[in-house]
Amino acid sequence: MSFFAAVHSEITKLLSTRLWWVLALIMVGYVALCAGGLGAIFGGVGSSNNGPPIPEAQLPQLIYSFATSVGYVFPVLLGALAVTSEFRFQSLTPTFLATPRRGIVLGAKVLTLLLAGAVFGVIALIASIGAGASVLSAFGIDPLLGDAETWAFVGRSVLAMALWSAIGVGLGALVPSQIAAIVIVLAFTQFVEPLLRAAASFTDWSAQLGQFLPGSASDALVGASVYTMLSPSSVSLDWWQGGLVLAGIAAVATVIGYFTSWRRDVS
Amino acid sequence: MPTGVPIEFAHLTKSFGNVDAVSDLSVVIEPGQVTGFLGPNGAGKTTSLRMLLGLVRPSSGTATFGGTPYGRLASPLRTVGASLEAASFHPGRSARNHLAVYAQAAGLPKTAPDAALEKVGLSAYAKRRVGGYSLGMRQRLGLAFALLGDPSVLVLDEPINGLDPEGIKWIRLLLRAMAAEGRTVLISSHLLSEVQQTVDDVIIISHGKLVHRGELSSLDVSDSKQVQVNADDRDRLAEVIRQAGYQVSNLRSGVLVENAEAAEIGRLAFAAGIPLTGLSQKRTGLEESFLTLVGEEGSL
Predict the structure, then answer these.
(1) Which residues span the membrane (chain A) (predicted)?
(2) In total, how many domains does chain A have?
(3) Is residue A180 part of a domain?
(4) Binary contact (A97, B91; C-beta < 8 A)
(5) Residue B175 confidence class, pLDDT cut points 50, 70, 90
(6) Is the residue at A110 inside a domain?
(7) DSSP assignment of A37-64
(8) How high is the mean pLDDT of chain A?
């Protein structure tokens, strides 16, 4: 079965360089810092009774959602680099010699990165829940770890991270230049999209469009985020619609990338 | 034992815009021998090989392995082993993992990477990251990739480039042995002298067109056979040869005789009672015919 052989090969590719654990390590640090820090701030504010009214029942998910709301850039980078490094190091040559059917290779990459993104999701949630729950407990707030709703949220977060990783694959196929892909990921996720989301919330019609931005869709899928908490009036998709938007972006980018860069002559 | 499969180019053409990188290339490469694919840089060798391997789409024509295009081979790495350039790997991956990635994709046995590294003499460096490899080690790793599936056809682009003299000798023996086992071996080079001692047959292209095809010796069509000869009494030697009707010129290390056979000059000297200190046939023909065939760029 050449598809499963290709997936096996892609998994080995991913695990045999340092990239994945370097990214995972930075992600854990970043997510834990945000979740722990904001947990301390909100926990402190909440217990002194003079801050904005964030219901205690929502606070844990808000804190835990740093896994996706700040952590999603890491699976995107992982996916984009998995594709662009093939172009950069000209390893498409041996790859296509071993598996001449290029669609199989790209499909195997998408599946592998979906799995890797899910693993990144689990790691990020361990970081956010680990740091967040201990801080919340320290302030006497119930971290809701026994709550079924919390675990449904965890499942949706893992799905979101997996889809983000697939979006990275699509982006890499669309923009094979590694530097350009990294710049686009960082600029879009850290700067352009937050601005667009803020701008979109000013009018009703733009808010309707704004909910389809990938970050908004991801927050809708996960069900909690600092962004939505900061502007609670804004409209939002249902969780499954958010998931479909992310999957759609990944699919469209990958298919276009397949026809524009992946099928080109390798020289 | 893998049986060789012929490589067949039929009217293969690749155009980039108005420029024909390869035009109407038709040639069959038979198993059981080493075939040199020669031409100056930019003649279209690499493009032809990439079309053969399904990496570049031909504008027209076909390139197949016994009638089957690369993309339709049931098990490509078991049929064809190819090495195209020394630098197609991720520098952060170890040699063993580099090979394991492709062995897994091709469904080869788990032992294949180590066996291939053993064959090219890189076993001791299997765990080292490839980024730290020398050019010669990269060439060997490229060859290890080609040997991964114990293929019946070998296609190597400039395999000798970057090897040290010991490595050149080693690859020469390896390729000869593989051809002797009945495999098809095609190696490209821009230098005839580099592969002269390795190949049986040559295919020469220039500006994307086939300009010569035949046994290596078929290139040796030049009339200007020269003999270099030396003796302690060089002046007398030159005189004797000149009187026999040859054209003679003086070199720093002897006398150069135009249009002569070494045996004939040896007999002349013996008859005149002159002890020779050196006698050799100069074969400038090969290189010169090669340069004539490929035109001006042959000097590259």
Answers:
(1) 20-42, 62-83, 110-141, 161-188, 239-259
(2) 1
(3) yes
(4) no
(5) very high
(6) yes
(7) HHHHHHHHHHHHT-S----TTTHHHHHH
(8) 91
Residue A1 pLDDT > 50, yes or no?
yes
Chain B interface includes A218 (CB < 8 A): no
Question: Rounded to whole angstroms, what are the CA distances from A90 to B87, B261, B294?
Answer: 7, 51, 30
* Nearest-Cα residue of chain A relative to residue B57: A265
B179 close to B152: Cβ distance less than 8 angstroms: no
Q: Does A109 touch chain B (CB under 8 A)?
A: no
Instruction: Flag if B56 and A266 touch (Cβ within 8 Å).
Output: yes
Tell me the C-alpha distance between A217 and A245, whole Å: 6
pLDDT at residue B300, rounded to an integer: 41
Note whether residue A267 is domain-resident: no
What stretches of A98-227 adopt beta strand conformation (E)?
Answer: none
Structure tokens at A139: 């302030």
What residue spans define the domains of chain B?
A: 7-219, 226-283
pLDDT(B298) > 50: no
CB contact under 8 A, A99 and B89: no
Closest Cα in chain B, distance from residue A144 (Å) = 43
By DSSP bridging, strand B153-157 and strand B80-83 are parallel
Q: Which residue of B has its CA nearest to A265?
A: B56
pLDDT higher than 90, residue B226? no
- Structural domain of A233: 2-262
pLDDT value for A237: 87
A138 belongs to a structural domain: yes
Output the CATH code of domain B226-283: 3.30.70
Residue B193 pLDDT grade (very low, low, confident, very high; cuts 50, 70, 90): confident
Tens-digit pLDDT profile for residues B125-167: 999 999 999 988 999 999 999 999 999 999 999 998 878 889 9
> What CATH number should be reported for the domain whose range is B7-219?
3.40.50.300
Q: Which amino acid is at A218?
A: S
The order of strands in the sheet holding B19-29 is B19-29, B7-16, B60-65
